[in-house]
Design goal:
By secondary structure, the protein is an alpha/beta fold. It contains 14 helices and 19 strands. The protein has helices spanning 2-30, 102-107, 126-133, 148-154, 169-176, 192-196, 199-205, 209-230, 257-264, 284-291, 306-312, 320-324, 341-345, 350-361; strands at 42-47, 50-55, 66-72, 85-89, 94-96, 114-117, 138-139, 141-142, 145-146, 158-161, 181-183, 238-241, 243-245, 248-252, 268-269, 279-282, 296-298, 327-329, 375-376. It has a five-stranded parallel beta sheet, with helices on one face. The longest helix is centred in the first third of the chain and has 29 residues, at 2-30. The relative contact order is 0.11.
């Protein structure tokens, strides 16, 4: 009897080992290499019946990574992954929390699945504003204090959230209410193509990965081609950026998204030598000393006319770019409730931003092209 029991126990252990080995082998054989090329903040790996999304850097100095399982209908997910948030795809209803998420929905033609957003007035998209007017998208209040009662009533398949630091209590409150949250860190990407590549995350959520890849490929090709066009001009104009807010002049650091775009537009951004992805905070005197003879001035977008600039600070007229009328802004294009289109669309379409800059700085290189975001301030 004891001998029989030992045999059964040994066979059970062997059977479990074989099953475990079989499961591991299946996972390894089914894996597709990471689909992401430029973005540093997430990875996307496809398996038979499901995908694994790992968000690595949703905000600066994030202390942990976040893993999500996107499970297709009838897909089988290994038990080892069941501790992670599982989302059934394709999703039918979504809540997003940043205007930078809106263009991906539009490009994938799934904007009608959007059921809620915090502070609807920020949205500029004409298609989404039409849905808002039809009362098909609910107001969710402040971003860091979303209306949980409304969210529970909406029952979205997923909430695309974002954080600014390691304090994630507001996101945890949503999850504790039974809602599924997936973090998006597109805003923390350092490169223009890295920001734009987050469309692939939305492609995976809607089981439209092939469409997302094609869309991104078009953006990538156009962007890289425009870089080569910009190099054809031997002249590299000097650039001043930003403007005063209260008593400080804010302008992009040298390795930021905006600075990289200026560099790839074949411009000499005067603070390109600095490091960091945020903003520099300088005195007026410091900026004037370095940039008083800059060829062009790209403002922060808070001004629409030269008069507005003069009213804010009469000393702006001392800059050579101001005197020559070479001041440009993206503030002119707004949605009907005041949202600035640049903030919404530009991170997803760096190809369009780069073309705008090349047209401004090297107008002969893009004959017939009219800037989409930027306008000369008059």
């Amino acid at each position: 009897m004891k001998f029989t029991f030992k045999i059964i126990l040994i066979l059970a252990i062997l059977f479990s080992f074989v099953q475990c080995k079989k499961e591991v082998k299946t996972i390894e054989n089914a894996i597709v290499s990471d689909e992401i090329q430029y973005a540093k903040g997430f990875s996307l790996e496809n398996y038979e019946g499901y995908s694994v999304v790992t968000v690595k850097n949703p905000w600066p100095k994030a202390t942990k990574t976040y893993t999500y399982i996107l499970k297709k209908e009838n897909g089988v997910v290994p038990d080892s992954l069941n501790t992670h948030t599982t989302i059934t795809v394709p999703i039918k209803k979504i809540v997003v929390t940043s205007t930078t998420h809106i263009p991906s929905l539009e490009m994938l033609e799934v904007e009608k699945t959007l059921v809620g957003f915090p502070n609807l007035d920020y949205i500029s998209s004409e298609k989404v504003r039409a849905l808002i007017d039809e009362k098909k998208i609910k107001e969710l209040g402040a971003n860091q204090a979303l209306n949980i009662e409304v969210l529970i009533d909406l029952q979205p398949d997923v909430i695309i959230g974002y954080g600014i630091d390691n304090d994630t209590k507001s996101l945890e409150n949503l999850e504790n209410s039974g809602l599924k949250v997936l973090l998006n860190g597109d805003w923390n990407e350092e490169t223009p193509l890295g920001k734009a590549e987050w469309i692939k995350l939305f492609g995976a959520l809607y089981d439209k990965q092939d469409k997302a890849k094609k869309l991104f490929s078009i953006i990538e090709k156009d962007y890289l081609n425009t870089i080569e066009i910009a190099k054809l001009d031997s002249v590299t104009p000097t650039i001043l950026a930003g403007d005063m807010f209260q008593d400080k002049w804010y302008l992009p650091k040298g390795t930021s998204w905006g600075s990289i775009l200026l560099k790839e537009a074949n411009a000499n951004y005067l603070w390109a030598y600095t490091s960091g992805t945020g903003s520099l905070s300088l005195s007026f005197e410091t900026v004037y000393e370095k940039a008083k003879e800059a060829d062009f001035w790209i403002t922060s977008g808070q001004f629409s006319t030269l008069k507005e600039m003069m009213d804010a600070n009469p000393h702006y007229e001392q800059f050579e770019a101001f005197k020559k009328g070479n001041v440009y802004s993206f503030a002119g294009k707004k949605g009907k409730t005041g949202g600035v289109l640049y903030y919404e669309l530009a991170p997803n379409r760096p190809d369009m931003v780069l073309k705008d800059l090349v047209k401004i700085l090297h107008p002969d290189l893009l004959p017939g092209y009219e800037p989409f975001f930027f306008e000369k301030i008059k």
